[in-house]
Amino acid sequence: MNEKIARYGVKPVQRPKIKADRQLDLSGEEGKKIIQAETRSVLKKHAKTFAKLADM
What residues contact residue 34 under an 8 Å CB cut-off, 6+ apart? Predict the structure, then answer.
């Protein structure tokens, strides 16, 4: 990625890696609700993309 950025005259910067500090438990009723909410969000954001893929 840095080579691609450098081609356009932008100075690449090293960013620190962010590590997860918590584990997300998706089992059980709470996990099911999280998955459903995220799925609704993705479907709403990318509705046109899914419609185009369905027409292929």
Answer: 24, 26
Contacts of 35 (CB under 8 A, 6+ apart): 26
Give one word for 50, left, alpha or beta, with left for phi > 0 and alpha for psi -120 to 50.
alpha
Q: What is the largest CA-CA distance in the chain?
A: 50
Radius of gyration over alpha carbons of the chain, in Å? 19
Confidence of residue 37 (pLDDT cuts 50, 70, 90): very high
pLDDT digits (tens, 9 = 90+) for 4-25: 888 888 888 888 999 989 998 9
